[in-house]
Every structure is written in structure tokens, then in C-alpha cells.
Fold this protein.
Amino acid sequence: MSKKENKLEAKNLDAYYGDFHALKNINIAMEEKAVTAFIGPSGCGKSTFLRTFNRMNDYIDGFRIEGQILLDGRDIYNKDIRVDELRKEVGMVFQKPNPFPKSIFENVVYGLKIQGIKKKSVLEEAAEKSLRHAALWDEVKDKLNKSALALSGGQQQRLCIARALAISPSVLLMDEPASALDPISTAKIEELIYTLKNEYTIVIVTHNMQQAGRVSDYTAFFYMGELVEHNKTRTMFTSPKDERTQNYITGRFG
Ligand SMILES: Nc1ncnc2c1ncn2[C@@H]1O[C@H](COP(=O)(O)OP(=O)(O)OP(=O)(O)O)[C@@H](O)[C@H]1O
């Protein structure tokens, strides 16, 4: 099998919140249609780094980057990049499920409606496809017009994944997507991530090392704003190269 292309890359990336140097000379290339987990102790920069891939940090006063973030080889911080177009390509799911106070159906088709798609049959088809993809269809198909807020936390998170998938991204960023969920819902999200990687490039921030071991092909370990080590997950967990990685994965700090 030929080697997969690099979907996402960071080159000599530094990031700052005002004077605070949050990410220090990060270099990484992430394969397409693979799952990469970002691990590391609290405050080491995982979420900051994740958010650079869809420019979510742009909203934060005083935040700036140096270096490059490439999506399919294109620098997404270039002046000619439209951020709304970028976010269609790079979807995001957050730690706490954040459905809108609308019906299940309206949540899923929200992004499509913003794009101006009005035709009912197109929206219905997209809603079903996305909900099936997010492994939620069977649980909600008879109550699409009910409020999304009446769903369980785990269902709400899968709904948010369906909402992200509806706009056909190629990358899915997930910031601790299961940390607010019970073990059964967590297992469902993990299974889902495993199936989604056939079609999407997935980057997941997780505090749970077992979870990183279960769902990811590659793991990147961050420590105090540095990328210490990036390798195949199995290699990283069995024979880490750096002492700091070893200390972290054996629970000696963090
Ligand atoms: N909006 C902000 N303004 C200023 N500093 C920030 C901001 N967001 C994050 N930071 C700082 O940047 C550093 C990295 O934070 P980040 O949230 O990326 O870490 P993290 O590894 O994701 O942590 P956690 O695992 O606790 O979520 C921390 O020192 C944090 O205090």
C-alpha cells in the first residue's frame, strides 16, 4: 500500500497569548484518514494547537502565531484563505456537547441552511446521512422534530458530531469529546471515531491515555508548549524515546 498523504502540517509554529509563549517551534505532519491523539499534562498547549487548525484562536485578543499551518499543503493563515471556507473543511467537536436549543433535525442541517441550502429533500437526505454516520439515526429517527436538549449527554455529543459531518469536512478536530460522558457513551464515541477515520482525518485531544491507545493511530505528546514526541501510538506506548514521554505515560506526572 502506498504511503498516505499528509493532510495537516505545522512548520516552525510558535503561538503566543500576549507575552506568553504557548507553543514553541512545533513541527508535525499528520497523515490523512488517520487518527492522531494529542496528549500531555494540563496547560501544555494541546487545545491551543488543535484550535490553530481551524483558526478558532483568531477570536482571542492578543493571540498570534509565527510559522505555518498547512492543510493539503496550503497555508491556512494566508491572506487569501477565507475562514468560513476553511471551517467547512475542518469541523470541530468540543468537550461539552453544545447542541442549539432547536430540534434534532434543525441542529444537523444548521450549517447547510447557513450555506443557503433550502430544499427540503436535500436537507432530509443530508440529515439522515449525517445521523447514520454519527451512529445516532436509529435512536432519533422517530423524533427528529423533538428538542435536541432532551437527548442524553452522549446522544447530544453524537448529534454535535452529526452536525459537524453534515457540512462534509475532510478533517474533524475533537477537543476531549468524551470527557463529559459516562463510560457507555464514551465507548460509543470511541467506536464512532474508529469508523469515521475511513473517511476523515481526525485529531483528538484527550487526557485519557487508554483512550488514546484505543482510538488513535498516532500520538503526539506535548509538554510545556513543546511537542516532545510524535510516533505511531503503539510505538509511543511501548517504547517512548524521550524520558518525559515515558514519565507521563507511566503516570509519574500530569
Ligand atoms: N485565552 C487565553 N488567554 C491566555 N492564555 C491562555 C488562553 N488559553 C490558554 N492559555 C494558556 O496557554 C497554555 C496552554 O493552554 P491550553 O488550553 O492549550 O492547554 P491544554 O494542554 O489544552 O490544557 P488542558 O489539558 O488543561 O485543556 C496554558 O498555560 C493556558 O493558561
